[in-house]
Write a structure and sequence with these properties.
Layout (H helix, E strand, L loop, with lengths): L5 E11 L2 E11 L4 E5 L6 H9 L6 E6 L2 E2 L10 E4 L11 H10 L9 H14 L15 H13 L5 E5 L7 H18 L2 E6 L2 H7 L2 E6 L2 E6 L1 H6 L4 H6 L6 E8 L2 E4 L10 E3 L9 E7 L4 E5 L7 E7 L3 E8 L2 E8 L2 H7 L7 E5 L5 E3 L10
Parallel strand pairs: 3-8, 3-9, 6-7, 7-8
Antiparallel strand pairs: 1-2, 1-4, 4-5, 9-10, 11-12, 11-14, 12-13, 14-20, 15-19, 16-17, 17-18
Helix pairs in contact: 2-3, 2-4
Length: about 375
């Protein structure tokens, strides 16, 4: 299987002066890497993929595949395979014919012999667990099987770069989980350079070697999934990754201590002594900490928070806490029935204890302080 590196260098996509879909995107995807573009709807991730595929023109900048600028090359000359959200299978063709159709339509020097086509189809079918379904029509396949056929159709071309645009969004939750595992296994087995678009952060976290987090057309962070999770570059990344997302509390830093804003008049303010590497920061800021690293002290007379509600999920309970206009969440692992009864009391004070190693600080512009 061929592989290639991919580069975006200062890429912009403007439809008109009021509609800029992608703004100055610069990333380098290594050979054999699995990179996921993730972000909310309208953030520019699919447009970026379509520009790489040659389906959208580039307004400014360059896109390269294996060191060759492809801005003006047609899609078929870019050495890519693409899997879309819709399966787009030919309903009147069986699985074997769907897999081989693109190869059979090639002309000239690119045309392959029947033995080579049969070999590629057989290899893809075995890899994807489709061998016993080669004679079936798409209507007689499950959603997961149809998606594997769509993936196989791209793989038989032996592309240098495999592009996937939300390929699992039409599947139910159980099938999505299964296909995530299969996609990662296939990547580890084939090693094809893969660029994958999704709005689902779970897909991004579990599939990617590195993720590109986008918002309003701009890249917010390009890093490994765990780096983005534990050390978000700004408050958008902090609030986007994680279920529940990182707690973000606005306030002010002075003399090494954080004082939150948002408490009601007469209430005890929410304050915290900050770790030493943040002690020199002064001024407006946002304090960030993950719910799973937030311990509860129920019945603490000096506690700042009241229980606003909770979600029991079996192995854990998500507890939502209020203090004036401040709302944070905490994850209580394996709490048990007695603990759940305690958090039904909405009147008692609750204190929080935050793991110091988990504390993150963002400046008044929302950017991470000291690389936190």
């Amino acid at each position: 299987m061929c592989m290639a590196e991919v580069g975006f260098d200062g890429v912009w996509k403007e439809y008109d002066s009021d509609s800029v879909a992608v703004k100055d995107l610069t990333i380098h995807v290594e050979t054999g890497e699995f990179v996921v573009l993730v972000g909310p709807s309208g953030c520019g991730k699919t447009t970026s993929l379509r520009m790489l595929a040659g389906l959208e023109e580039i307004t400014e900048g360059t896109i390269s595949i294996d060191g060759v600028v492809v801005n003006d090359l047609p899609p078929k000359a870019r050495g890519i395979g693409m899997v879309f959200q819709s399966y787009a299978l030919y309903p009147h063709m069986n699985v074997e014919r769907n897999l081989s159709f693109g190869l059979r339509m090639q002309k000239g020097a690119e045309r392959l012999g029947k033995e080579e086509i049969d070999s590629r189809v057989s290899d893809a079918a075995e890899l994807l667990g489709l061998t016993e379904y080669l004679d079936r029509l798409p209507k007689n396949l499950s959603g997961g099987q149809r998606q594997r056929v769509a993936l196989g159709r791209a793989l038989v071309r032996q592309p240098e770069v495999l592009l996937m645009d939300e390929p699992l969004s039409n599947l139910d939750a159980k099938l999505r989980n299964q296909m995530r595992i299969e996609l990662r296994r296939l990547h580890e087995e084939l090693g094809t350079t893969t660029i994958y678009v999704t709005h689902d952060q779970v897909e991004a976290m579990t599939l990617a070697d590195r993720i590109v987090i986008m918002n309003e057309g701009r890249m917010q962070q390009f890093s490994t999934p765990l780096e983005a999770y534990h050390h978000p570059s700004n408050t958008f990344v902090a609030s986007f990754l994680g279920t529940p997302p990182m707690n973000l509390v606005e306030g002010n830093m002075s003399d090494g201590a954080f004082l939150a804003t948002g408490a009601d008049v007469g209430e005890k303010p929410f304050t915290m002594k900050m770790p030493s590497h943040y002690s020199s920061y002064e001024g407006d800021c946002t304090l960030g900490f993950r719910p799973e690293n937030t311990a509860l002290k129920i019945g603490d007379k000096d506690g700042n928070f009241k229980i606003a509600g909770f979600e029991s999920l079996g192995s854990e309970t998500i507890v939502h806490l209020d203090h004036g206009s401040i709302r944070i969440s905490a994850v209580w692992h394996r709490p048990g029935p007695e603990a759940n009864r305690q958090i039904m009391d909405r009147t008692s004070n609750v204190g929080v204890e935050i793991d110091e190693s988990d504390i993150r600080l963002f400046d008044s512009e929302g950017n991470a302080v000291n690389g936190a």
